[in-house]
From TrEMBL:
Active site residues per record: 210 (proton acceptor)
One GO MF term: transaminase activity
Protein name: dTDP-4-amino-4,6-dideoxygalactose transaminase
InterPro entries in the cross-refs: DegT/StrS_aminotransferase, PyrdxlP-dep_Trfase, PyrdxlP-dep_Trfase_major, PyrdxlP-dep_Trfase_small
GO biological process assignments: polysaccharide biosynthetic process
Sorted UniProt keywords: Pyridoxal phosphate
The family this protein is said to belong to: Belongs to the DegT/DnrJ/EryC1 family.
Membrane-crossing residue ranges in chain numbering: none
Residue numbers bearing the N6-(pyridoxal phosphate)lysine modification: 210
Top-rank taxon, per record: Bacteria
Pfam families: DegT_DnrJ_EryC1
Length: 406
């Protein structure tokens, strides 16, 4: 799931006690510049191998990455594709989605979670979310069930997995297939099992801001199902099975079914192979930064909810998301002091114009709608310094102190 647009500096923001020059870019929401300085020798070596091979898509570096990700996640099959969105479309198709089949999807997530269902020929059916995990609320699923429902798609957001035990039990009772939008969830595990492997399959996104990010779009399908893997392999390459995948030998290059052009670029795979070597260290650093935020924001009036840091099985901080009063005012204030933030997500899916034909109105999914009004993501990436976290928190204290004294 690609990130929403970064909050831009506001010319009207910045009143109060500025700690940075108004409009200065003090703390970017995200940057890869520092990590590339450290990783460049390894990236360069892999990139030169791509140039020497002369195969820039669907080649040797992609195969190497697929094997490395299979080892990291424990998946029987990892199939590299062009993006996380394509991974969802191909997984839905390979899992047997038929025209008109309904897929239960949370109302609060990036639009690709639902648009992938439409692109694969299905119909998204929205359900409300749990206010703590921001994922599908298992208690909300039953009322959205119809005779056409065939799939349920939990989305793992921000720093924790959905309630897979309850969702899996619901799916089993109603003979539904679980497919996970685990685009943000690399490194998240529960009971030793990696995200994306609790149902028929899952996906990963390597959009640049992700925990494991490329320098452009790239994604992957994870599955333990041999037939799904074989079908995704064909679909990503115009319906052709032309090279080794997982445990399957290369078959031929004839077209077995209508497919897509969704092959992963080898230069993206080269970057990801280099960054994978430091993924666990990056995850640990993200947890350290989240803990620093928690310490400074714990008693701050105006912060309605913070993520729990520690004590959550499989937790990986892709995003540090808070709920605050006067969210838009706070974002503008921070932007005016050079601190970039992001809003996840400005509008719930059931109120997006592209899903207007589903007939929803404001108030249909109140928890999702409240999250869209109040959530704000603060800068969080491995190269962020503790001093920069302090800058963000100092400014937040300034903002809420001024509001209380006004």
């Amino acid at each position: 799931m690609p990130s929403p647009a970064t909050t831009s500096a506001s010319t009207s923001a910045g009143a109060g006690l500025p700690r940075q020059t108004v409009g200065a870019r003090a703390v970017p929401f995200f940057t890869q510049a520092r990590s590339f300085e450290q990783l460049w020798p390894l990236i360069e070596r892999h990139a030169v191998e791509v140039l020497d091979d002369g195969k820039f898509s669907h080649g040797r570096q992609v195969e190497r990455l697929e094997r490395a990700l299979a080892r990291y996640t424990g998946a029987r099959h990892v199939i590299g594709v062009n993006s996380g969105t394509d991974a969802l479309v191909l997984l839905l198709r390979a899992a047997g989605l038929r025209p008109g089949d309904e897929v239960l999807v949370p109302a609060f997530t990036f639009v690709a979670s639902a648009s992938a269902v439409v692109l694969a020929g299905g119909r998204p059916v929205f359900a409300d979310i749990d206010p703590v995990s921001y994922a599908l609320d298992p208690a909300a699923l039953a009322q959205r069930l119809t005779e056409r429902t065939r799939f349920v798609m939990p989305v793992h957001l921000f720093c924790r997995l959905a309630d897979l035990s309850a969702i899996g039990a619901f799916a089993a009772r109603h003979d539904l297939t679980v497919l996970e939008d685990s685009a943000e969830a690399i490194g998240m595990r529960q009971g030793g099992r990696h995200a994306g492997l609790f149902g028929a399959g899952g996906v990963l996104s390597f959009f640049p801001t992700k925990t494991l990010g490329a320098i452009g779009d790239a994604g992957a399908v994870l599955t333990d199902d041999d037939e799904i893997a074989r079908t995704v392999d064909a679909l990503r390459h115009h319906g052709r099975l032309g090279r080794t995948i997982g445990n399957f030998p290369a078959i031929n290059t004839s077209t077995s079914l209508p497919g897509f052009n969704s092959k992963m670029d080898d230069l993206q795979a080269a970057v990801l192979l280099a960054k994978l070597t430091r993924l666990d260290a990056d995850i640990a650093r993200r947890a350290e930064l989240a803990a620093a935020y928690e310490r400074r924001l714990a008693e701050l009036p105006g912060v309605l909810r913070r993520p729990q840091v520690g004590g959550v099985e499989g937790q990986v901080f892709y995003v540090y998301l808070i709920e605050v009063e006067r969210r838009d005012e706070l974002a503008a204030f921070l932007a005016g002091h050079g601190v970039e933030t992001e809003v996840y997500y400005p509008s719930p899916l059931h109120l997006q114009p592209c899903f207007a034909e589903l007939g929803h109105r404001a108030g249909d999914f109140p928890v999702a709608e409240a999250a869209c009004r109040r959530t704000l993501a603060l800068p969080l990436y491995p190269e962020l310094s503790l001093a920069e976290v302090e800058t963000v928190c100092d400014l937040m204290h300034d903002f809420f102190d001024q509001r209380e004294s006004a």
